[in-house]
């Protein structure tokens, strides 16, 4: 009979944390629109789909997002407690900007673009009104991010600085270093430089 591994939390050790966040499941009255939107936005493929359930993934996980078709559901009250948004991280600024451009060509545009400090983020609204954040990490290491938090910069501005995604895309194509582009206010600073140069 196999030996049961020791349970550290039961033995007074630290609690065992999950190894990953596996998936999100949405109950929706807009089933087909939601499945199509998330497949488009995430570049996801369908693992399973029928009239009631759909499972989508974009990586090795069997499903990252799933949808339950419930046409009778009422819309969520925006004033009620609940999840504010879900976020997906891209590997680099080029990937985030390529996704922005692809989605814009499909008529899907962000409702809010902001450099929070730790992340450069573009927020979208899905067909049910849930906010979806597409982001990159602005710091190469956790140590650099922790140093930035300790500097007090986040306390001074915990929301961030809005940016124009088309300006950011143009600057990226112009070869402005990514380290400069992910600094808060980069597009505004670049715009001022261009203005003063003319």
What does this structure look like?
By secondary structure, the protein is of the alpha+beta class. The chain has 2 domains: 23-73, Roll (2,3-Dihydroxybiphenyl 1,2-Dioxygenase, domain 1), CATH 3.10.180; 85-198, Signal recognition particle alu RNA binding heterodimer, srp9/1 (2-Layer Sandwich), CATH 3.30.720.110. The protein has helices at 31-42, 93-105, 142-150, 153-156, 165-173, 178-181, 186-196; strands spanning 24-28, 45-49, 53-57, 65-69, 85-89, 112-115, 119-125, 131-137, 161-162. The strands form 2 sheets. A 5-stranded mixed β-sheet has the order 5-8-7-6-9, covered by helices on one side. Strands 1-4-3-2 form a 4-stranded mixed β-sheet, covered by helices on one side. Strand 6 and strand 7 form a beta hairpin. Helix 2 (93-105) packs across helix 5. The chain is globular. The termini are far apart. The relative contact order is 0.12. Residues 191-198 have low confidence and may be disordered.
């Amino acid at each position: 009979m196999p030996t049961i591994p020791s349970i550290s939390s039961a033995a007074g050790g630290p609690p065992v944390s999950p190894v990953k966040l596996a998936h999100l499941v949405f109950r929706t009255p807009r089933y087909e629109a939601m499945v199509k939107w998330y497949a488009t936005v995430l570049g996801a493929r369908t693992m399973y789909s029928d009239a009631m359930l759909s499972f989508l993934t974009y990586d090795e996980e069997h499903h990252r997002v799933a949808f339950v078709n419930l046409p009778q559901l009422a819309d969520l009250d925006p004033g009620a407690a609940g999840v504010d948004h879900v976020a997906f991280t891209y590997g680099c600024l080029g990937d985030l900007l390529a996704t922005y451009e692809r989605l814009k060509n499909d008529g899907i545009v962000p409702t809010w673009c902001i450099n929070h400090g730790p992340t450069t983020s573009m927020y979208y609204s899905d067909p049910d009104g849930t906010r979806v954040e597409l982001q990159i990490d602005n710091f190469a290491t956790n140590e650099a991010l922790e140093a930035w938090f300790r500097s007090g910069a986040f306390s001074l501005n915990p929301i961030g600085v809005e940016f124009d995604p088309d300006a950011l895309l143009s600057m990226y194509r112009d070869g402005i270093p990514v380290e400069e582009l992910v600094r808060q206010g980069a597009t505004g600073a670049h715009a001022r430089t261009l203005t003063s140069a003319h």
